[in-house]
Specification:
The structure is a homodimer.
Chain A: H1 4-11, H2 15-22, H3 30-43, H4 49-56, E1 61-66, H5 72-87, E2 91-96, H6 100-111, E3 117-121, E4 139-142, E5 152-155, H7 158-171, E6 177-181, H8 189-203, E7 213-215, H9 221-233, E8 240-243, H10 246-258, E9 268-270, E10 287-289, H11 292-308, E11 318-320, E12 324-326
Parallel strand pairs in A: 1-2, 1-3, 3-4, 4-5, 5-11, 6-7, 6-8, 8-9
Antiparallel strand pairs in A: 10-12
Chain A binds a DNA duplex through residues 1, 3-5, 13-17, 19-20, 22-23, 27-29, 32, 47-57.
Chain lengths: 333, 333
DNA sequence: TTGTAAGCGTTATCAT
DNA sequence: ATGATAACGCTTACAA
């Protein structure tokens, strides 16, 4: 392995001059630069990033920790973060956490200075873990399960957007609206969206019915399909479904098709996330678009501010993104 | 920032002993270990990975470079690689390449020892870039555009699987089978799958018709939908469609629905990849399952062999994965 | 079982 | 414009 020393020797200069050439420092005479570059190519020199990181204390890379890489939602999120980071000359490295354990692990990884900062999309952690987020390195949390924590935070407009989504179903004539959500044990995505659902019903003077609230333990298409079939089989009376994710909603569309229920004629369905697939599903899926790109942009901005801050810690920001309701075939759009 | 030195001082031992504790070396007296651990928690010590990497010359992390993170196919692939690596106690860090330029960049990144090795899923590079793959660090290429290159290589069973897919359409009674593929400029995924398509037609004594070959410039659902609508509008006579990816095929299902063509009654459709969504699409999509997990496993195995090899370079392996045809509603299954 | 010394490859700082 | 020196924080090899 050839090092800066080897190049320096070959070019007849000091290692420092080679370093200056590598980093495009201005004070290098063109002829010197030439000689160094020539030596670098001749020796097939490659910089050792670990050494540079150690010396600089910076890596130029931010980490993005997501629960699952093979998911339309987190894929979309990652794409947004990468685009936003790229504009700011930062690389992004994605890690899959998959569990609360690993989410906590991811925290210490960045603390370890492998990355300049970390964007953590937390699904497994809850309010109880909030204190673990009090770290002394740049961290931005993307998600909904932790509020008032000691950390910068970009959240979805869960409550308002859900209210709007359910409001849309009501406008379209639904009166018995089911909701598919996760366990609601504490303040999390599902509970916020459930509250939005309840508010929308109340505003329209519709009686809430606990039988209409369906729980799922995962947010994939499989679970949505199963739930829909069960609801139909149980004879439950419903004319609309609001799902906490698009994957769930597409599963519901599939499940309803399996049992011969027509969408949107008999039942209208709306999801949340506006993943790429929803536009092309049959029927195409109405949904809430949470402005992923805006949220990604803000998360990266917050992180960069933290990375570049010197001096006293700033107050922690909590931002909530914007949203819009996208009307498609599944609600008769 | 607290270092090993600080911990050593606080625990009244040498830095080396702290290092031994961190790395679970056996020769540390329990009482000493206790004292060190206590000091570590008290001082909130976090190891500096950059320093460790530099000293060790290893990172314990492999890189995975994919063209696009927000795609069902690459998401599936990434999930497989992560699972395979995890079993071998390796971390995976994902990078989005997006272009041939970045694919070449990714090569030098790993060469730079940020990762112990790199798995490169190359879409933009072609045979002409093969020589660039002659690198002196562990590299495994996943893909189809480079053969006989100076590199370990795990490829899809493109030709055979395509022949089987088209054979399935023929069995189901299709006689005028369209194919959606990318530009076929050199040996790549599309051209291999096209050859499989042609072989299947020939075996069944069906006349090939150039009008049935449709080109797309990207492999997303949008392109599939557009193509399908155009084919239908142009009055082209076809009763089957073979698509080089599932995304494309789901787009075709959507496009055919748009113009009122019934699947599978009037036209049968089959894709390639078996992404999660195909099972739940309406109609569910018949497709080729290329044994992603097996390929991921082998790629990781090859990479580990390279990482751990000392001595003379081995001969380069070229593996081709297995496959199966998954029959679903879109072909009347 | 523990400690000492040297070095991993780079960059910051300060001279020249 | 270029170079000498001292870090950066850890581990390997060897000594005690």
């Amino acid at each position: 392995m050839t090092t800066i020393q080897d190049v320096a020797k070959a070019a007849g200069v000091s290692p420092m001059t080679v370093s200056n050439v590598i980093n495009n420092h201005p004070n290098v005479r063109p002829s010197t630069r030439e000689r160094v570059l020539e030596a670098m190519t001749r020796l097939d020199y490659r910089i050792n990033v670990a050494a540079r990181n150690l010396a600089k204390g910076r890596t130029g890379t931010i980490g993005l920790a997501v629960p699952e890489v093979n998911s339309p939602y987190y894929g979309r999120l990652a794409a947004g973060i990468i685009a936003a980071a790229e504009r700011r000359k930062l690389r992004v490295s994605i890690e899959q956490t998959a569990s609360r354990e690993n989410e906590l692990d991811a925290l210490s990884l960045s603390r370890n200075r492998l990355y300049d900062g970390l964007i953590l999309s937390a699904a497994g952690m809850g309010q109880a873990d909030a204190e673990r987020l009090r770290v002394d390195h740049p961290l931005v949390v993307l998600g909904d399960r932790i509020f008032g924590g000691p950390v910068d935070h970009v959240a979805m407009p869960n409550l308002e957007a859900s209210r709007a989504a359910v409001g849309h179903l009501i406008e379209r004539g639904c009166r018995r609206i089911a909701m598919l959500c996760g366990a609601v044990d504490e303040v999390d995505t599902s509970s916020l969206r459930l509250t939005g659902y309840q508010q929308a019903l109340r505003e329209a003077d519709l009686a809430p019915d606990p039988a209409l609230i369906q729980r799922v333990d995962r947010f994939g298409m499989r679970e949505g399909a199963r739930s829909a079939r069960e609801m139909a089989a149980s004879g439950l009376d419903f004319d609309g479904v609001f799902c906490v994710t698009d994957s769930l909603a597409m599963g519901v569309l599939r499940g309803l098709a399996d049992v011969g229920v027509r969408v949107p004629e008999q039942v209208k369905v709306i999801g949340f996330d506006n993943v790429t697939e929803s536009e092309f599903f049959i029927p195409s899926l109405s949904t809430v678009d949470p402005d992923h790109d805006g949220m990604a942009e803000r998360a990266v901005d917050l992180l960069i501010r933290l990375i570049e801050r010197t001096g006293p810690p700033a107050v922690h920001e909590e931002l909530v993104g914007g949203f819009s309701v996208v009307v498609r075939e599944s609600t008769g759009g």
